[in-house]
Amino acid sequence: MITGSMVALVTPMHEDGSVDWEALARIVEFHLQEGTDSIVAVGTTGESATLDVTEHCQVISRIVQQVAGRIPVIAGTGANSTHEALELTEEAKGLGVDACLLVTPYYNKPTQEGMYRHYRFIAERVEVPQILYNVPGRTSVDLLPETVERLAEVDNIVGIKEATGDIDRARRLIANCGSQFAVYSGDDPTAVELILAGGQGNISVTANVAPAAMAELCRLALAGEAEAARRLNDSLMPLHRKLFVESNPIPVKWAMQQMGLMDGGIRLPLTPLSAEAQPELLSAMKLCGLL
Q1: Contact by Cβ (8 Å): 138, 44
Q2: Which of 16, 96, 199, 223 has the most other CB atoms within 10 Å of its CB?
Q3: Distance between CA 255 and CA 261 in Å, rounded?
Q4: Which of 93, 106, 116, 161 is catalytic?
Q5: Reduced to 3 DSSP states, what percent helix, strand and coil does the chain have, rounded to the nearest 5?
Q6: Candidates 106, 116, 133, 184; catalytic one
Q7: What domains, with CATH codes, occur in the chain?
Q8: What percent of the chain has pLDDT over 90?
Q9: Where is the site described as L-lysine inhibitor binding found in this chain (predicted)?
């Protein structure tokens, strides 16, 4: 089972929007050095919606090759087309990932039965560990606990990234889905509480800019050191909040540019962080010791 701090990695780009492969290599090495426990490649933070299929698979391949087994690599392979998600998951398996992360089908707004069949269809055809991803704030569809509990019975569906920030929901999933099914936070501000409730880690945006701190936060929470974990989380709260001052990954890519980790490239329809929002994020970065 994959545990700890799992960075939802950005895809660095040049100012013209092309993928910056050199920066990607530097950022992967940065995470290996800073103690990140796992890398999530081309999730929604990695701009999966605007990378074409070739680029999507190239990013996964480059990361798998560079990591070379030192930490797990999880590939984002979700889509609102079941057959597209199947193809991406098959390709990711062939590239050697340790698991795949599949967001709920967005825009279509399927029923609970439709989502159950979507995930089961893929899991039954691709023998790679698969993690569900529920983020209703972005997809306009909510994978309800009773549906997750049904899916937890499918052999290679091994966990869920629950990004609602609802700790009571997380507790229900932890209690009802069995010890072999991992519940991960997808909400940085509430990740500590989810892990303390029995979750296995955090798939994190904040870890892009504060990987060592997020790795320590998860380590403390997994060890049950609640007071220390909460204290560290409180110190990071300005960053957790301001990294969502505009749509993710707009703020985190701007923050990484300020840290010298990459250029400021981002793909339309997303645009660079507005001048009005920059002072807020800059202040949070300084409070958290990033600049």
Answers
A1: yes
A2: 199
A3: 9
A4: 161
A5: 45, 15, 40
A6: 133
A7: 4-223 (3.20.20.70)
A8: 99
A9: 49, 80, 84, 106
- The identity of residue 206, as a single letter, is T
Q: Give the pTM.
A: 0.97
Q: What is the pLDDT of residue 78?
A: 97
Structure tokens given for 208:
């892009």
What integer pLDDT is reported at residue 282 of this predicted model? 98
291 neighbors 38 (Cβ within 8 angstroms): no
What pLDDT, in 10s, does the model give residues 226-270?
999 999 999 999 999 999 999 999 999 999 999 999 999 999 999
Cα separation, 27 vs 23, in Å, equals 6
CA neighbours closer than 13 Å in the CB half-sphere of residue 134:
24
Is 119 a residue of the active site? no
Is 131 known as a binding-site position?
Answer: no
Active site residue 109: no
- Alpha carbons 119 and 135: distance in angstroms, whole number: 15
